[in-house]
Amino acid sequence: REEGRGLVEGQASENQVSYVITIEERSYTLHLNQQVFLPNNFRVYTYSQGGSVHSDFPHIKRDCFYKGYIAGFPNSVVTLSTCSGLRGILQLKNVSYGIEPLDSTPGFQHLVYQIWNENIESLLFVENDSVIWSEGMTRKLDTGIKYDYMGSDKDVVTEKIVQLIGFVNSMFTPLNMIIVLSSLEFWADSNKIPTTGEADELLQRFLQWKNIHLILRPHDI
C-alpha cells in the first residue's frame, strides 16, 4: 500500500461534520452525517473461570461515528470514526483510501494510505435498486459477528467491532437499513460452539446457541 501524511481541516454542527483532506496535493471535501447504531443499553459480556456470565456497560462514545460522501465525486462513500482522531475509509469509484491518526506525532496528523485489496471495490457500493421498499421506511437488522481476537485487549476489540459495524451500516444506507450492535460477548477460554465448517453451518450453530442462551436477556435486540 502507498502511505502518506494527510492534511486535515474540519468544521462541525449538530449531527453533521465536514472535513477537507489533502491527499497527494489534492483536496477532498467530506460531508458526513452522524450514525447512531449503539443502543443505550449496549453491553459487553464476559465469562468467569467458573463459567458464570458477567456484563458491563463499556465506556464507548456513541456520537462520533459518521458516514457520507466526497463532494464532486458521485457515488463516493465515506465512513469515519472521530472518537480519537479520524479513522475509516474513503471510497471513490476507482480508488479507496484508509485513514488513521498518527499517535506518535504532535498535532492533528493522520496517515492516509491507498487500499489495494480488490474486494474493497465492491465493499461499500450498493445499488439503490437491489431491494425495493416503501420510501422512507427504515429497517433494522439484528446480526452476529464471529471475531477471533486472540487474547487482545477487550476494549481494543470492542472499538474495532464498533468501527466494523459503522462500515457495514454504510453498505446498507441505500437500502434504508440500520445495523444495530446490541451486545458483544467474549469467549476467552473456549468457543461455545464449533467454529469449523462452512459459513452456513456456523451460522446455524450460532443461531441455535443464541436462541438457548440469549432468550433470557430482554435488552438484546
TrEMBL record:
- State the InterPro entries in the record: MetalloPept_cat_dom_sf, Peptidase_M12B, Peptidase_M12B_N
State any GO BP term from the record: binding of sperm to zona pellucida
Drop me one GO molecular function for this one: metalloendopeptidase activity
Every copy of the Peptidase M12B domain together lies at 147-221
Q: Which keywords describe this protein according to UniProt?
A: Disulfide bond
Q: Which SUPFAM superfamilies match?
A: Metalloproteases ('zincins'), catalytic domain (SSF55486)
The organism's place on the tree of life at top rank:
Eukaryota
Q: Which GO terms describe its cellular component?
A: plasma membrane
Does Manganese count among this protein's keywords? no
Q: Name one Pfam family in it.
A: Pep_M12B_propep
- Which PANTHER family does this UniProt record tie to the protein? ADAM A DISINTEGRIN AND METALLOPROTEASE DOMAIN (PTHR11905), DISINTEGRIN AND METALLOPROTEINASE DOMAIN-CONTAINING PROTEIN 18 (PTHR11905:SF158)
In Swiss-Prot or TrEMBL terms, this protein is called Disintegrin and metalloproteinase domain-containing protein 18
Record the organism.
Chelydra serpentina (Snapping turtle)
